[in-house]
Automatic annotation (TrEMBL):
It comes from Salegentibacter echinorum. Residues 216-292 form the WCX domain. Keywords: DNA-binding. This is Predicted DNA-binding transcriptional regulator YafY, contains an HTH and WYL domains. InterPro entries: CBASS_pafABC_assoc_protein, WCX_dom, WYL_dom. GO terms for molecular function: DNA binding. It comes from the Bacteria.
Length: 298
């Protein structure tokens, strides 16, 4: 069996056991109903299945144990790292795309511009090897084009876009550049000294890509309607999200976050399904923004 098949089998086992505990036979039966698993012949003997369980813990950091009384396997500890999870999700998506070509138009994508992900590998290489890059940058607000030379530091994903965090050689200021607006990328041979900038620390209390502003991180409490709150509970707005209240009338979450422009826009996007409880300053700002929005209809 190929390495690719082994990886796919691991991913299938993880996905199935995340649904519910299953016996070895139930896992095989579920795979029998999966066209991709059938086509790739991902079935295994019980001995191979046992080896897969051990390999999954070693490779993916997901511990799976068997309940001897029920003979069902269950995920006990799941500490899969973000990048590993994303790789697995992309692997699943690629398989779905491949299958959709055979099964019609059941897979429907949103129409959007390319994300500029073709630049990821080159920019990652440049940042790891301290090589300056040059490119043409297209601005959204005035459709102008500027020639940039920057020292790449890191790459960050925010709200379905990828951004380059880099020091602009023109003014020495660290800026964010959306990859989908970068054209004619060139990796130069000009080396630069490592830049003292901890990208994760700079953005950990931020929502989206805006940072470097005057806002300090504060404790924010948001109250959602039960319907919207269940959605936010399953897909947190920020890694600091903490559930503090849940009843039939509302669901409240607490955050430690900088109330930057993009976070305020995210709150406003929920309309009447959310209410700011704390801090009062943010509550006032959101209220004023809603009043200005209503004034547009007078």
């Amino acid at each position: 069996m190929s390495v690719r098949q082994t990886i796919k089998r691991h991913y299938k086992i993880i996905s199935l056991l995340r649904l519910r505990p299953m016996t070895y036979e139930e896992v095989q039966d579920m795979m029998a109903d999966d066209p991709d698993a059938v086509e790739e012949d991902l079935f295994s003997s019980q001995r191979t299945f046992q080896r897969d369980i051990k390999d999954i813990e070693t490779i993916h950091k997901i511990e799976i144990k068997c309940n001897r009384s029920t003979k069902k396997y269950a995920i006990i500890e799941d500490v899969e790292e973000t990048h590993t999870q994303r790789l697995r999700e992309n692997f699943d998506l690629l398989n779905a795309i491949r299958l959709s070509k055979s099964f019609g138009n059941q897979l429907i994508f949103e129409e959007r511009k390319p994300l500029g992900t073709q630049h990821l590998a080159g920019l990652l290489h440049a940042s790891q090897n301290y090589l300056a890059v040059e490119f043409e940058y297209y601005k959204f607000w005035d459709t102008s084009v500027s020639k940039r030379k920057v020292k790449p530091i890191a790459l960050k994903e925010a709200q379905n876009r990828w951004y380059l965090i880099a020091e602009d050689t023109k003014d020495g200021i660290i800026k964010n550049f959306s990859l989908d607006r970068i054209m004619e990328l060139e990796i130069t041979k000009d080396r630069f000294a490592p830049i003292e900038y901890e990208a994760y620390e700079e953005f950990k209390d931020c929502f989206g890509i805006i940072n470097g502003t005057d806002e300090e991180a504060v404790e924010v409490v948001l109250s959602f309607t039960p319907r919207e709150g269940r959605y936010v509970e399953s897909l947190p707005l920020h890694h600091s999200q903490e559930l503090i209240l849940k009843n039939k009338n509302e669901i409240q979450f607490k955050y430690f976050i900088r109330p930057t422009y993009d976070f305020k826009m995210e709150i406003l996007s929920y309309g009447d399904q959310v209410k700011v409880i704390e801090p009062k300053s943010l509550r006032t700002q959101i209220k004023e923004e809603l009043e200005r929005s209503l004034a547009n209809y007078n």
